[in-house]
Amino acid sequence: MGRKVTLATCSLNQWALDFEGNLTRILKSIEIAKQRGAKYRLGPELEICGYGCADHFYESDTLLHCFQVLKSLLESPLTQDIICDVGMPVMHHNVRYNCRVIFLNKKILLIRPKMLLANYGNNREFRWFSPWSRPRYVEEYFLPRMIQDLTGQTTVPFGDGVLSTKDTCLGSEICAELWNPRSPHVDMGLDGIEIFTNSSASYHELRKADHRVNLIKSATTKSGGIYLFANQKGCDGDRLYYDGCAMIAINGDIVARGAQFSLEDVEVVTATLDLEDVRSYRGERLTKHHKPYTRIKTDFSLSDCDDRCLPTHQPVEWIFHTPEEEISLGPACWLWDYLRRSGQAGFLLPLSGGVDSSSTACIVYSMCVQICQAVKDGNSQVLEDVQRVVNDSSYRPEDPRELCGHLFTTCYMASENSSEDTCNRAKDLAAQIGRSVDDTLSIKGMLGIFSMVTGKWPQFRAKGGSARENLALQNVQARIRMILAYLFAQLCLWAQGKPGGLLVLGSANVDESLTGYFTKYDCSSADINPIGGVSKMDLKCFLQYCVKSFQLTALIGILDAPPTAELEPLTDGKVVQTDEADMGMTYSELSVIGRLRKISKCGPYSMFCKLIHSWKETFSPSQVATKVKHFFRMYSINRHKMTTVTPSYHAENYSPDDNRFDLRPFLYNTQWAWQFRCIDNEVSSSTEQCGYDGVIWKV
């Protein structure tokens, strides 16, 4: 009958500028697609060079090497008799575009430039690319000589065109174009295009996956059609983790999907679908479109004549991960990519016995769980990588705890202000997940040098010292821990007669980074931090999940203990310092404030105006004003710390990451005189108009 088509999309773990590895993974995906009978294969955005090249996109070398890889793809026997859709940057008329290059049997059919660029969140595409601003317009592109010699083509179509085969028509979207209110698939559907493709480099954020799925379902619910979504996967060289989720939909239903988190470098998703289902769905919904697309015709069919016995894929239910599962899986996969690609031999973590460092430890344990499962499932690449990391070609990981003993070292750094309770909690957790070394740090030698020079010996506040002395003494303890952590990371394996070094892991959460509640250049200063984009509230839920899923019972005591830095002297052997008292607000309140600052784009005044309503059952307007002012003072005083903060896994959309997500000054007028005066005026007005009695604001 010739109406059923088998299509393939994929998630690839590409690495920025790893042209050799990227080519290998692209060819592997094409090979798998052909083995499954697919006649069309879609890959991720900018898959040839990797999405995260950043300012390397400016280099002519990047463009050159992309065309060299494209030449290798065109020459490969694997790319014959299948339409291949790959992503790479292309310079046209001296303007750089983010493009799809679609080819078949050593002929380039169409180069489709991205029209709607992503320029929000972590995306800065306008820095490197220009958008194609001529809808439904196609012109000639002169190919480089190396491609001309191979294909026999001098020019090829370049622009907003669609591909017309003998049996259907395909149109491209690229990543952010799906999220835009003027998505191209709307007009393409009205012009009779039946298959939409989207090549993405969409990164993970907690609670985001359902938005992506709903957009794709909606795209084909409105006007019918088949939708293919390809995405990058893994860490391609920076703070982001691209979370796969390759999928295929038809007429509002998901019929095939890939994993959101996995250690597979190449994952191909295929589906066989009936084009008549699209035509029947559209028959009573669409009218003729008055602005046709330029159709690039090709003498090729996606379907076969005799397909009566070919079954089609049916709708599948998408089960989304809980936030706790996302924290367990995403950062763990990111850590594994970083470890195997960095050439290091494992991780070292200063483990304090608190929620944050315990969360980092549990993520490493989760990584080991995933590695063991991948090896058990026959993933030869993971096995090869593990053997290289542990420097043992005969090693085969089977037990996560045993693997942790090879890859993970924890170090409890006690001071005279550390309690026995936290020490025991840290030791209990370390015993359940891997191995540990102990060290007792002393700051007396440092203070002796200071005293010798100045003639002064600073004291903690509890012993009569000033606030300045108290803070300085806390900071010096924390900074010595950083020095010791790196000493152990560099020489721990040397002391055991083993090669390599360890990556130091940090464990400051997103809320502490927001307020600057950490010491600059302390043990939060590490090589990478898997929890730096996760809130304290989410981390507590994550540890509860780990108790049940990994049977890490040592976490129960950690969850019950109040968060504390343990940098001030104990009272009768007990901790009196707590994080929330030091910060002047709870972690729950801080999470709300953080979201208003970043997501809702609130300054001090607008934040106050929102919180007097949402917190009206708990705080009076003057109390809300006090909290808002306190936050912005702390935030602005400590913003300079974000310029040196450890690179962290991006997980929250209110992250204060200074690298490229949350661009702010780091020298503020911390008085906020104008803004705070506006708040004071509003408090006075609210009190006069609404009244105030005790804590509850009457409205």
Automatic annotation (TrEMBL):
<dbReference type="InterPro" id="IPR036526">
    <property type="entry name" value="C-N_Hydrolase_sf"/>
</dbReference>
<dbReference type="GO" id="GO:0004359">
    <property type="term" value="F:glutaminase activity"/>
</dbReference>
<dbReference type="GO" id="GO:0003952">
    <property type="term" value="F:NAD+ synthase (glutamine-hydrolyzing) activity"/>
</dbReference>
<dbReference type="Pfam" id="PF02540">
    <property type="entry name" value="NAD_synthase"/>
</dbReference>
<dbReference type="InterPro" id="IPR003694">
    <property type="entry name" value="NAD_synthase"/>
</dbReference>
<dbReference type="GO" id="GO:0005524">
    <property type="term" value="F:ATP binding"/>
</dbReference>
<comment type="pathway">
    <text>Cofactor biosynthesis; NAD(+) biosynthesis; NAD(+) from deamido-NAD(+) (L-Gln route): step 1/1.</text>
</comment>
<keyword id="KW-0520">NAD</keyword>
<keyword id="KW-0547">Nucleotide-binding</keyword>
<keyword id="KW-0436">Ligase</keyword>
<comment type="similarity">
    <text>In the C-terminal section; belongs to the NAD synthetase family.</text>
</comment>
<dbReference type="GO" id="GO:0005829">
    <property type="term" value="C:cytosol"/>
</dbReference>
<dbReference type="Pfam" id="PF00795">
    <property type="entry name" value="CN_hydrolase"/>
</dbReference>
<dbReference type="InterPro" id="IPR014729">
    <property type="entry name" value="Rossmann-like_a/b/a_fold"/>
</dbReference>
<comment type="subunit">
    <text>Homohexamer.</text>
</comment>
<dbReference type="InterPro" id="IPR014445">
    <property type="entry name" value="Gln-dep_NAD_synthase"/>
</dbReference>
<dbReference type="InterPro" id="IPR003010">
    <property type="entry name" value="C-N_Hydrolase"/>
</dbReference>
<feature type="domain" description="CN hydrolase">
    <location>
        <begin position="5"/>
        <end position="275"/>
    </location>
</feature>
<keyword id="KW-0067">ATP-binding</keyword>
<dbReference type="GO" id="GO:0034354">
    <property type="term" value="P:'de novo' NAD+ biosynthetic process from L-tryptophan"/>
</dbReference>
<protein>
    <recommendedName>
        <fullName>Glutamine-dependent NAD(+) synthetase</fullName>
        <ecNumber>6.3.5.1</ecNumber>
    </recommendedName>
</protein>
<dbReference type="InterPro" id="IPR022310">
    <property type="entry name" value="NAD/GMP_synthase"/>
</dbReference>
